[in-house]
Design a protein that fits this description.
With 260 residues, this protein is of the alpha/beta class. It contains 8 helices and 6 strands; from the N terminus they run H-H-H-H-E-E-E-E-H-E-H-E-H-H. It has a domain of 139 residues: 2-Layer Sandwich (Nucleotidyltransferase, domain 5), CATH 3.30.420. 39% of the residues lie in helices and 15% in strands.
């Protein structure tokens, strides 16, 4: 009998997303593994931060788990689940499924010795990658992209806004920090018709202070940091890093939508 781990999906949580993985084919070789166990293994890896080869023996073989993880990343399954759950969570909280306002920021994280694309962030003094995210007023991710840490926030924002489509029809205002000042404000206004509002810290204020609106995206980064796989960027490819972030948010939203 398989052990039950805290990261495992409950019956109601699995029922919410099982249709995204498809039904077994009526012809051909019968499926030997349950997709629910595959998903549980991926959630375990993201939450605990273990290596693929160190997945507990209760789960299917790590090669099988990785195969399906990569397959669902390439065919957009993780992305579709993430988008659907965000709409469900917004509706549950009495919001329109398409947000009208958001907050954007970036987070520089170190990479490991795994060969990968990386760069140096001169401001944060970090060699690694940079996560650019746009969240709604609930802190749920609307769009994300991962670049080398050498990419400036303004250039990262341009790439970020090119990654999403259907949400832009209602989005009107995006709060950002001082790193996004300059020509990018007019560029965003002309190309996407969004208003970038820069929220700055007062010069005469000392110590820690919660800045209006900007705390929302900082809280989202804190949610991501609760998953040990995201404490650094351990992935070889940036697209894999993006999938890991989506899976972390899927876990968070499922626990809200279906607590039991």
């Amino acid at each position: 009998m398989n052990k039950i781990y805290p990261s495992d999906l409950t019956d109601s949580q699995w029922h919410n997303i099982k249709d995204f993985y498809g039904s077994p084919k009526k012809t051909g070789r019968p499926r030997e593994v349950e997709f629910r166990q595959i998903v549980n293994a991926v959630l375990y890896l993201v939450f605990t931060g273990c290596q693929w080869r160190f997945l507990p023996a209760d789960f299917p073989k790590w090669q099988t788990v990785y195969y399906y993880f990569a397959k669902w990343r390439k065919d957009g399954t993780w992305f579709r689940i993430h988008e659907t759950l965000r709409s469900q969570e917004r509706i549950r909280q009495g919001r329109n499924k398409h947000p009208s306002a958001g907050c954007a920021d970036s987070q520089s994280v170190k990479t490991t010795a795994v060969p990968s694309s990386r760069g140096f962030d001169g401001g944060k003094k970090i060699m690694g990658r940079k996560r650019h995210i746009l969240v709604d007023t609930l802190g749920l991710i609307i769009a994300l992209t991962v670049t080398t840490a050498a990419v400036q926030d303004r250039d990262g924002l341009k790439k970020l806004l090119r990654t999403f489509g259907v949400h832009r029809k209602k989005l009107r205002k995006v709060w950002v920090d001082g790193g996004y000042r300059g020509k990018v404000i007019e560029w965003v206004k002309q190309r996407f018709r969004y208003h970038l509002e820069v929220v700055l810290r007062a010069d005469d204020v000392k110590g820690f202070i919660v800045l209006p609106k900007r705390w929302i995206v900082e809280r989202t980064f804190a949610w991501l940091n609760n998953h040990r796989r995201l404490s650094k960027d351990y992935e070889r490819f940036a697209k894999t890093s993006e999938a890991m972030i989506q899976i972390a948010m899927i876990r968070l939203m499922l626990r809200r939508l279906q607590p039991f």
